[in-house]
């Protein structure tokens, strides 16, 4: 089985997987995100990061994520949804490194969300390809939680449309830079407080009003100072999940820590959420895309 | 006419007014907010700030704002709404400075908002007292835009209830610290883009999804890079104003620059918004409260 390298290169992190056929035989989970790399030095940086794997050969490299954005190494135009996974492989941007590795960058996807606003993803489409190879259903919904959480509809083995929720970024902003997070003691997770926030999120109070309750419940000592992050997390994840169907099962793809949080919220709301590891989906998805690129039967 | 001093001391700013009866004869608009003052040095700082006005007398000082909060000089318990303005004067916290000035700190107000969540204000109650002295109507709504915008119902010359929207703080967080504000050129105000955002705000798209459109419209070049602040401002003010009645007139109390923005949004939404200067309301309100404290007929 031939070796190749899969790379997930995002704004704030770099992860690489040394692959043999469809199997990951080694990982490199540490590396600088795009924001830490100067324009013009992507190739040099990649060579340094992958050095341990270059003993004898110039392995093919398949990359996904913000590395294909305007601020990345090479801008790869978005593919318009609805789109098949095969079309992503076909529209990958290819070039060759100084050390003769063939490289492909998988394009991101854009669409109009069900709320009729433009939306984009870069990187998540690979996890979707992986889940699609695992789950044979014709039509299903997926949540990919994170800085910019994505809610996706897969229809007929294609990415139909999606919407981005700024859940993770809003949580970081509010807990680190706003009055709501000011002068907090070390935080402890409270499932009770998290559930209380999910309960409130169902009222559909305007979010910019509801968030202020993280201050007033604290002032009133109705929520303890060490549980404010649990409360904020519940309000924001709740605001996202109250838009979801309670009749259809929904997949949740991500790190175990994040998907566990979403599963807790979903359970409380009566949503049937099935979690799956994001790395597993990424590896499965990028193998599928590579097989297509390499002309092998997936 | 006797002289006295009115002080509005908030988290990030200090403003003082030298008064003669109901008339402001001098202003001091520069001074450090509470966050810049160490606990225990409020008195010394106040003495330094008011020095120019202390030539011959120890004038009475009436203060309002976060100076009465837990993080302020003296914590003054909130008065529970519904409450009259007279009750605020009656529950002012009084003490005497080293230089023999009698001081009163006006309490803030707390309530449960119409969305059934706890809410608080400190400082705005003085502007409300001022507007109430100007506007004789029995029942009306008021918006006080700002970092934490307040929507208030006055009923029978009392503060009935209110809700806080984190409009100003969310705008600052998103424009300064989020991906939406990253690498923007100097901003220009665009009324067209502001209106476009107000139009979208009416769709009641979940806010954490809608905000992401500031990124995607920029990526798609449908909104110019120099108009992103106008767009964000429109989305956030819009999300606040779509909750308002279009059949009843509403007052808007604040700085001319802020109230003008709200007036533009309100006009677009068919809301009858009447703007009034926040300083004028503050001076009128604190005079009213001081007259009550001093036992004079307001």
Automatic annotation (TrEMBL), chains A, B:
Parts of the chain that traverse the membrane: none
Single GO molecular function: 2-dehydro-3-deoxygalactonokinase activity
Organism superkingdom: Bacteria
Pfam families: DGOK (PF05035)
Organism: Limnobaculum eriocheiris
GO biological process terms on file: D-galactonate catabolic process
Record-given protein name: 2-dehydro-3-deoxygalactonokinase
Leader sequence segment: none
